[in-house]
Design a protein that fits this description.
By secondary structure, the protein is of the alpha+beta class. 26% of the residues lie in helices and 24% in strands. Bound molecules: coenzyme A (COA). The site of coenzyme A has 24 residues, from strand 1, strand 6, helix 3 and helix 4. This is N-acetyltransferase domain-containing protein.
């Protein structure tokens, strides 16, 4: 079975055929993980990919600059560097198209000592701060391979974390951690989520932004149709969620454990890597 994402319609379909033509995964070049080295080129390419393929603002003037409703969310190379590669132990994984050489996708992340393991264990948490795949190449496993590439390149990763509005970014992370969708350990998030945030020093989310049943704050209001909040960060990142909501509804049939996504929130996930059997 093949999942095929239609980027124009922002919908998915499931077929029994393999992807064909220019979107075939055979066009992927090698996956590269760079640590503590950053070329200007990759930062420029990442900025271009992000600015053309990430998403759209849904709100004017959110206090972060000069965004316009309906305009693409953009980030300059400098803001990418300052906002998403903010400690000394960062990594970037990327993959380029084998023929055209364009950047097909990238992941930015940071590592820090795993706050849930004894310090002498040398175990690490890997926090994904950015994960973007060119919209012509989505639903082919590229996001998963980008995170997997980091896991292979960096020894001793025991915990993964991400804040994202996109259910498939969350699922890509869970796949790499070896956790089936319905088995997300919400107790782990509840007990260690805040410590993981502090360990990595994520600048755009703090403990007081965490909401949902995992943090004893399950409701935004008393409406009977109030959304089911499980583990979220109120990041005030007002990006368009319409099609993410459709994906959430689809994933609910497959055991999606994180409930709904109100505006200005993102899913907050920390997950311990599954032990090898
Ligand atoms: C979110 C994003 C990075 C996913 O990239 P991707 O390469 O399409 O993701 P993958 O193909 O690796 O899929 C990851 C998981 O999502 C699910 N998924 C992906 N496409 C799917 C589809 N069409 N139908 C059903 N499930 C799908 C699967 O569970 C998949 O895991 P699996 O391959 O082990 O089954 C990409 O959609 C994107 O760049 N979106 C815009 C930016 C964004 O929102 N980034 C996240 C912020 S951190």
């Amino acid at each position: 079975m093949t999942y095929h994402f239609n980027s124009a319609l922002k919908t998915y379909r499931i077929t029994s055929e393999l992807p064909e033509g220019p979107t075939s995964t055979t066009n992927e070049g090698g996956y590269i993980c760079e640590r503590l080295v950053l070329s200007d080129n990759i930062l420029m390419e990442a900025s271009e990919l992000y600015s053309n393929h990430y998403g759209f603002w849904i709100c004017e003037d959110i206090g972060r600059g000069t965004q316009r409703e309906g305009a693409r969310v953009k980030l300059s190379p400098r803001r990418l560097l300052e906002g998403y590669l903010f400690n000394d132990d960062y990594f970037i994984t990327h993959v380029h198209h084998r023929v055209s050489g364009i950047l097909m996708g990238y992941a930015f992340g940071l590592t820090a000592p795993d706050p849930t393991s004894p310090p002498a264990s040398g175990k690490k948490i890997a926090w994904i701060t950015q994960l973007v795949v060119h919209d012509e190449y989505r639903s082919q496993g590229i996001a998963g391979r980008l995170i997997g590439c980091a896991m292979l390149a960096i020894q001793n990763i025991s915990v993964f974390g991400i804040i994202s509005s996109h259910p498939w970014a969350v699922l890509a992370l869970m796949r790499v951690a070896g956790i089936p969708t319905p088995d997300l350990d919400l107790d782990f998030i509840s007990q260690h989520g805040a410590a993981c945030l502090r360990a990595v020093g994520v600048p755009y989310a703090t403990e007081d932004m965490l909401v949902g049943s995992a943090f004893g704050k399950p409701c935004l209001d008393d409406r009977s149709d109030a959304p089911n909040l499980v583990s979220l960060a109120l990041t005030n990142f007002h990006v368009e969620h319409g099609w993410c909501s459709r994906i959430i509804e689809f994933e609910k049939k497959r055991g999606w454990p994180l409930g709904d996504l109100p505006e200005a929130h993102e899913f907050f996930v920390v997950v311990r890597k599954a032990e090898k059997r």
